[in-house]
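Bumping with the actual sequence this time:
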Amino acid sequence: MIAKNFVALCLTLMLCGSLHASDARAGDASETRSETLSLLIGEVRVGSLQAKTRGNEVTIDYEYRNNGRGPTLKEHITLDESGLPSAWTIQGHTTFGSKVDESFAVQGSKARWSDSTGTGESDAARKLYAAQSSSPWALGLYARALLADGESSMAAYPAGNIALQSGEEITLTGSGDSLTARVYSLGGLDLNPSHILLDGDRQLAAFITPRFVAVRAGYEAESTRLRALAAELSTRRLESLAQQTAFRFEQPVRISPVRIFDPHTLRLSEPRAVVVHRNTISSVQPVDTPASPDEIAIDGGGGTLIAGMFEMHGHLSQEQAALNIAAGVTSVRDMGNANEVLDGLIRRIEQGQVVGPRVVRSGFIEGKSPFNSNNGILVDSQQAALEAVRWYAARGFWQVKLYNSMDPAWAEAVVAEAHALGLRVAGHVPAFGTANGMLDAGFDEMTHINQVMLGWVLEPGEDTRTLLRFTAMKRFPTIDLDGPAVRATFDRFTRRGVAMEPTLAIHERGLLQRDGAEPVGGAGWVEHMPIGTQRDMRQSWFEIATPEDDAGYRAAYAKIVDTLRAMHRSGILLVPGTDLGGSFAYHRELELFQTLGMSAAEVLRRATLDMAVHLGRDQSLGSIEAHKLADFFLVDGDPTADLSALKRIRLVAADGVFYRPSDIHAQFGITPFVEGVALPGASR
């Protein structure tokens, strides 16, 4: 992969990049060049990268902490005479604690490497090693090597190519000085390019994303501007994608023949024709009904038409927005974001500038602490928390989400204020609180099943703002699901009608994935991904130091499944959401819901009409009926018999705009799953 960890990217918004400023070629062996880069989320400094170059040897120390976690890595790199790595070792731990022990070396006529996926070798050639778990320094190395070579791309070990694109020039100001830097984008091995700035000497000035910035020490004040630049670069790419993939029709569109999934009966209809005018389903007609003049005809091929699905746990980015549309997810509940970033994304989606779903906003409220997540609104008192609720209510948010570092003693007042202003309340169990306490305070929904189950195994005073909220899951096998503690919690859920959003797919991946093993939950789709994503999916999340760790985490997942089955039997509404970006992970979440006692048809109803009802949007969404909004997708096969059919989506309508997932996937380096339908007479 290109110098980032996929887990950190999806779950913590701790994006990595390239953070080194040494020359691509070996320097004077008598000189040591040192550089420090500050790592910031928003305006908050969360860590640093220190790189030292002496001759052709580079050592790197890289660490950050956000939300109680982050990577710690030490690297040593040897560069050959042309500036390419001839040896590279990486040791430390990933964001969630998995051990890193990676190496690469060119020895004679062979290049050999070892990472979390296993070992490999290849004939030595002029290639760049694409490190799996490196610090963000790697992208700077790749860019300088490509610039020195005069090429726009170069082959990589273990596979693929790294490509470089040059952009605009800007001037940065800081510490009484200024520097001119050029923007470069690096891509080829992952779903999205990474953006860096190099100065006139081709030294790194910054690595930038809309949320995370790594910038040369002394230039931290430029972080706001650099995040805005990253958002603009992403927007340009996604605007181009929208122009190439979005089909709009002024005339009525007739899709026929199709069989419609009816969430009321859990059955497929007889062949029908569905007619759409602009963003509304005009009518559902017998398949032999004559078309009116000037209609656009789309051959449905006898496939199945399903209402757009709801991903109920997103932290939406522009790239994820497009991939969710390609997955038939036309509505996403965002569970916490940088408010200004999300507002801009929603505006661009609504104006048709970028491809994306309908967004339901959750206002993120987090307490200030050494472990806090830098997201939403941070508060340091109950009064500040109440003011945050009022801020979100005045801006039309659907609910507020309370997080780990908020004082649990404030929950009752915060919930009361939210309910008085028409907002729902969901969230984690704040540290030193319990699920029972949050249910008593009036939560409408609990987020993440481990947050509930920890209350049955933790000792008083244990701090879940750290990785303990993951490692303590090894205690789950001791839980007695028929015991009084569990029954007391279940009774609170059922008596008050509280929903549970378990994020089961993220627990499956975190607890069951092992280094080098086939990707857990990835069957049928991982092989379509770029090589960097495939390597990420084969990496363990947590440290598995002993056989007892392995057995403990596996048993923990089994107990989670048993708990959710019991919740389902008790009538507790289980809400499908991933916290993994949605898209393919959302399809997996739905497959896992079948293991909880639901049929495939019941899972489809849960993903569509049930969630429309839950969000109060069932008058316009959730089923394919006349006068509802045109949010739906077309698949080959019968997903009521086999949910794997969801991977074979041929057409998506989102607010009456039509997309072929094969078109969108090609823009992300994803091998299409099925050919899209023919769309005649379309304007873009």
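The tokens above came from a reply further down the thread. The chain has 17 helices and 31 strands.
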